[in-house]
Structures are given as structure tokens and as C-alpha cells.
Amino acid sequence: MAHYLETEVLIIGAGGAGMYAAIAAAEAGSSVLLLDKSVVGRSGATIMAQMTVAVAIGEEEPDHWRHHLADTIASGRGLVDEPLAKILCQSAPDRIRQMDGWGVGWARSPGSGNHITQAHAPGHDRKRCVYVDFLNTGPASSRTLRNKVRQYDGIRRISDLMVTDLVIRDGRALGAVAMHLESGEGVTITAGATVIATGGLTGLYQRNSASANMGGDGFALALRAGAALIDMEFVQFFPIGHLAPRLIGMDPIMWDPFRYKLGGVLLNGEGEEFTQNYGTVEDGKYVVTRDTATYAIFKEVEAGRGSPHGGAWLSFEHIAEADLRAAFGPVIDRLADNGIDLTKMAIEVSPIAHYHMGGLRVDETLATNVPGLFAAGEAVGGANGANRLSGNAITEAFVFGELAGRSAAVASAAASGPEPVPDIRAAAQAHLNFLSETAGRTGEGNATEGIIELQALMQRDVGPFRTKEGLERALDGIAALAGRLPHMSTDGPLAFNQQRADWFALRNMVEVARAIATAALAREESRGAHQREDFPGLEAAWSRTQVIRRSDDGIALSCSEVRHLAPSELTS
Amino acid sequence: MSERQTTRLKIRRGSAEGPARHQVFDFEFEDGQSVLDALRWIRGNRDATLAVRYSCINANACKECVMRIDGRTGYACTTPLKPGVMVLDPLPNKRLIRDLVTDTLPPDERL
Ligand SMILES: Cc1cc2nc3c(=O)[nH]c(=O)nc-3n(C[C@H](O)[C@H](O)[C@H](O)COP(=O)(O)OP(=O)(O)OC[C@H]3O[C@@H](n4cnc5c(N)ncnc54)[C@H](O)[C@@H]3O)c2cc1C
Ligand code: FES
């Protein structure tokens, strides 16, 4: 059975960006369809975030969005799309206060006038980062937006609906085709405007902080629809992500504030301190920058001096229990639930893929080059350049979500005028046929295994440190996987067939992986999150953005200038 | 590294229509590994068609992995594996979709 739905604004992905977009589009008077391939408001990165949100609200000390912008541009190492970053920083206070009004519960300082508390995070020139206690920023944000979304009759939410292709007619995005996971049936959706809010791509890596839905679907959907991607080579690795022992219910990047506050010691598999061998001296304080720690751990593991699970030890054993408790209170109990006593044992850490700076190329309305197609949240490229400032990602989800929702509402109204949006069933038929053709094939291997294989390959050769040789090997491996894809099994019952859902995920993942590796191979320099061992220096000539589009024989790479603002626009 | 132990998972397979049957999978685990770790390993290495819902894997945020574990309702991602036999069933009070997946979506979020 084929299902058919119509809406003015279609939003693909219901994390922070998608939910905010839905609210803004509904406020602007549009009917909205908000889809998620898993559960609305529960399944992406937003709900998993436990740390902070950057915003110049100046509650803790005087601040201005232009200071936030200056830090964002500095962190992005010459590649920040300044008009986008300006929107990010300038609109952030409105969003954070709006969320406050909706009851998110930003932590406050009762002692000093009950203002919103702002913490200092690395890379910021002052205390700028708001949060919800305890480690509750993402869950509270998701809950607040879910509750808000429910208040609009104009927003229809559908979970378990995985978009497999966008529908393009006469060069314009007019909706999408999706697979209903419960039944395995195809769904056609006509929309006046479509927003890609599918989040990031860190699920392409073996070591990641991702949920199961972060393989980068949106980037592949966009490429196939003719949209341009930028900065795909910039995947942010978090140096001391949790590796072992197994830890549940905690953010894998949680060790950063621990180290920052208390000064944990990194040890190699032989129990020796090693970061000093890589150019930085540590004297019990947190001085190793993110990138150096990543490099040092990477090199120790390569030299056979890794910890048992292939990372480094992080030890707080020299710190008194009272100090640990004073700094991290209830977190210590949550660790105890996981059998971890920091006074008695070191834990293992390793660089993990955590965020992606690149993404869809958009203008200041968040429109892509495909008419009718918009992007929001982590799916957008450019605002964070070559390296993201901590706390900017949730801000980006809120700010870009709200703006994309508004822009999509305008575009949808303009597209349809007094007429209803055109029925796209004919244009969608090829995609629907493709969906049904991929059911019930008994073949060689399956995509669930294929994803594991791809993650290992990406981790090894397209990870935090790259070489020409490794990247070429990766591209060969990706091509081989892509070649096997049409023969992989998709059999089994239609109901909730994750093997088949994985097939559609892997179909996207190989395209996105190829985009990353291709851009990484071409960029013969090291900058921000892209580090080439064979090209260790930053090259001024490479202060350019790489653009990827689909071409007849795969993907085409080109360069374009980074958009800068005039000095006067940076400050007013 | 901690010692490896073995658990034998008996997992309810099939849809509401078919007869109930439990399929057995053995999994070697390390201390602290969760029931979800075993289920994901089974999907990747033994049977990719095993239906089980999860998103956040580590964060205990999505609440999607709820099921019956040894007769009690719990989250697969927060329940540690134990040596010996563990029995996994879908929630009894929800409509069964397949294997361990039941219809846990809010009614107004369905297609
Ligand atoms: C563990 C963790 C901790 C973090 N901590 C912080 C922090 O403290 N501060 C900070 O600023 N940032 C943090 N980040 C980054 C930040 O959380 C994300 O960048 C941000 O939440 C992204 O929001 P989003 O709405 O764009 O995407 P997401 O929240 O990831 O939502 C995307 C949604 O799209 C859905 N989707 C994907 N593909 C499809 C498809 N084909 N069809 C339908 N739906 C689809 C997914 O299921 C998902 O629900 C963290 C990230 C992680 C993973
Ligand atoms: S997988 Fe998210 S709560 Fe268990």
C-alpha cells in the first residue's frame, strides 16, 4: 500500500533544529509535517548533549554577540562563513531567552540576583555558556521543544518514517519519499518547502558519540537532489572521549570538564605520562590543547603503547575523594552506578568523532541552491569553519532551526500562491519503485555488517590524522563497498526490518564517506579538525572552502572563496 | 582487561501472528556490557533481521530500548549482562510489531 501526505512545510529530522523549525513555520501560519526516522525529539544528538550552550547574554559578566562572533571566527581558522556565524551569534540570545520562557530551566545563581549562570568553556574569552543541571542540557531542551511542538494543531508529527529520497521536479524540491519502518511501506509527501534537519554524520566512525541515526542521511539526500555540500573534510574529534569500562547514561565527552577542573593525568599502556613527548608540558594542569592530546594518544596507540582497548589511561587517582565530590557531586554517584571509582581506578579514553563542521551550503535565509530546499542545525556547513567552538552546536540547532522554519514558510507560501502545492506522485514514482525493489533480496552479506566495515575503515584512514596513502586506501574501500551494496541482503519480514533500513542508511553513508575522503585528500594542508600527517602546516592559499556536488560519474569537487564580512559588519 | 564471560540470550522472535518462539544466541562479554551491546552484536554478526529499537546506545536518553528482561520491564542499554541465561521478550501490554519491537510511539505520532 502506498501512503500519500501533503504539507506546506516538510521538516526531515526532529532534533533541536527540526523541532525549532516546526514551531517557527507553524507560527508563520504554515501547515507542517515533522518527521523522524526514529522517535520525534528523542533520537538524535540534541537529547544526548549534557554540557553547555554558548550565548552572549551577558548575565554572568558583560558580553556582546560580537565577542562571541570573534571567538567563533578565531576557532574556525579562516574558514568560517562569517554571514552565517553572525546570524548564529546575533540571534542566539533571542533563542536562549525564548527557551527560558518556555521553561527549559537554565541553571541560575540564586546567590546573585538569580541570573542565568554562565560557565567558561575552552575557546571563549569569557563566561558565556548556559546549561541545565545536572548534565541535563540536551534532555531539558528536547523536552521543552517537544512540549511546545505539541501545542500547535498545524504541526503533524510522525515517527518511524525514514526519508529515502527528496523529490525534485523542474529543479525544485517538492517533497520526499520515505519508508515507514513499522510496515516497510513507501510514503510520498508533497511539500511546498522542505527543511533538512537530519543532524550530523559521526556515526560514520567506529569511535563516536553518535546515536544510531547519525550516519549523515541528509547530506546524501541533498547531494542526490543537486544541492552543494561544503567543508566535508572537517570532522571534529573529541580527544578524550570515554572508551572503557562500559559507561551508560553519561555523555562520552564528560571527561573534559573533569580534566579541566581537576587536572587528570593521561598515561599510556605502560603507565607513563606521554603528552610531554609531543610538544606540551603538563604539570597536573589541563594545558594540552584538544588537538595535541588527540595526536599524542593516536601516536602512542600506533607505537603499540595504547591502553588495553586501544586508547590512553586517564587517571584521577591522585585527587582526594572530597575534591572529586566537591567538583562533581551527583556525577560521582552516577559513575559509581557504572562501577567506576575514580579514586581507585583509571578509565580509558580515546579520540572519538563528535561533531561535523561541514554540511549543506546555504545563504543567509538558510536556503540551499535547490529552490524549495532549506537546511538547519548540524546539517548546515560553514558557520563553524574548520573547528567548532564548544557550545556552538546547540545554539546552531536553535538559531538555524528557527530561521529555516520561517524561511521555509515564506518559500512555501510563495510557491503555491492561492493554489495548493502540486501533487508530486508522478515524479515520486521512480523513488517508490526503488523502495519496493530493495525489499526481500537474498544476497551476499548485509548492510548491517557493511556499516561496521565502513566505520572501521573511516576510523583507520579518514580519522583525526590523515595521509594521502590512507585516504586513497579509504576511497578504494568505499568504492568496493558501494559496489557490493546492490547485492546485499534485504530479506526477512517487511515489518520493522532494520536490515533493510540499514541498507538505505549504508547507501547514504558510502556517498557521504566518499565526500569526506575526497575533500580530505584534496586539502593538502592541516587546519583545525583536518590534520594531514604528510602536510603538517596551515597554508594561507588553502583559506578556501571546498564544494562538493554530484556529477554524472560520482562527485565533483571545486573551490570557492570563504564569505567574509566587512569590519564594520562584524561589530554592528 | 576484565575477564570474558558468556551469556546465553533467549530472544523472542516473530510477529503477533506467528507462533511464539525463542531463539538462542551466545555472547561473550566483558564486565559492564549491556543487554543492548549483545543485541547490537547479534545484529552485526549473527542475524541482521533481529528487530530491536534503540537510538542513543549509551545515554539512556531515548528510552526506546524498553523490553522485558527476565520477566521484568527494563532498558536493554542499562541492564548489565550476566553469565548464564537471560530471557528477552517484547513488552506484553503493547501491540507487538516484530521480535522485541512493540508499538511504544505516542498515538498522535503514528503514520
Ligand atoms: C553526546 C553528544 C553530546 C553533545 N554535547 C553538546 C554540548 O554540550 N553542547 C553543544 O553545543 N553541542 C553538543 N553536541 C552537539 C549537538 O548536540 C548537536 O550538534 C545538535 O544537537 C544537533 O541538532 P540537530 O537538530 O541538527 O540534529 P539531531 O539532534 O541529531 O537530530 C537529527 C534528527 O534527524 C533524524 N534523521 C536523520 N536522518 C533521517 C532521515 N533520513 N529521515 C528522517 N529523520 C532522520 C534523526 O533520527 C534525529 O532525530 C553534542 C553531541 C553529542 C552526540
Ligand atoms: S538505547 Fe536509548 S535509552 Fe536505551
Helix content of chain A: 25-40%
Determine the N-to-C terminus distance of chain B.
46 Å
* CATH class value of chain B: Alpha Beta
* Rg measurement of chain A, Å: 23 Å
- The gross shape of chain B turns out to be globular
Rounded mean pLDDT score of chain B: 94
Strand order of the largest sheet of chain B: 2-1-5-3-4
**CATH hierarchy: architecture of chain B:** Roll
CATH superfamily name of chain B?
Beta-grasp domain
**Helix percentage range of chain B:** under 10%
Largest sheet of chain A: 7 strands, mixed
Can you write the helix and strand succession of chain B as a string? EEHEEEEE
What global shape of chain A is seen?
globular
Count of all domains of chain B: 1
The CATH superfamily of one domain in chain A is identified as Succinate dehydrogenase/fumarate reductase flavoprotein, catalytic domain
Question: Your description of this structure?
Answer:
The complex is a heterodimer of chains A (572) and B (111). Chain A has 572 residues and is an alpha/beta fold. Among the domains of chain A are: 239-351, Alpha-Beta Complex (Flavocytochrome C3, Chain A, domain 1); 437-538, Methane Monooxygenase Hydroxylase, Chain G, domain 1. Chain A has 14 helices and 21 strands. In chain A, strands 1, 2, 7, 8, 9, 10 and 17 form a seven-stranded mixed beta sheet that branches. A four-stranded antiparallel beta sheet of chain A has the order 16-11-20-21. A four-stranded antiparallel beta sheet of chain A has the order 12-15-14-13, with helices on both faces. In chain A, helix 1 packs parallel to helix 4 (137-150) and helix 5 crosses helix 13. Chain A is globular. The mean pLDDT of chain A is 93. In chain B, the strands form two sheets. In chain B, strands 2-1-5-3-4 form a five-stranded mixed beta sheet, covered by helices on one side. A two-stranded antiparallel sheet of chain B has the order 6-7. The mean pLDDT of chain B is 94. In chain B, strand 6 and strand 7 form a beta hairpin. Chain B has one domain (5-104): Beta-grasp domain (Ubiquitin-like (UB roll), Roll). Helices cover 10% and strands 33% of the residues of chain B. Chain B has one helix and seven strands, in the order ββαβββββ. Chain B is globular, with a radius of gyration of 14 Å. Chain B has 111 residues and is mainly β. Chain B has one helix spanning 35-45, and strands at residues 5-13, 21-29, 66-69, 72-75, 84-89, 96-98, 101-102. Bound molecules: flavin-adenine dinucleotide and FE2/S2 (inorganic) cluster.
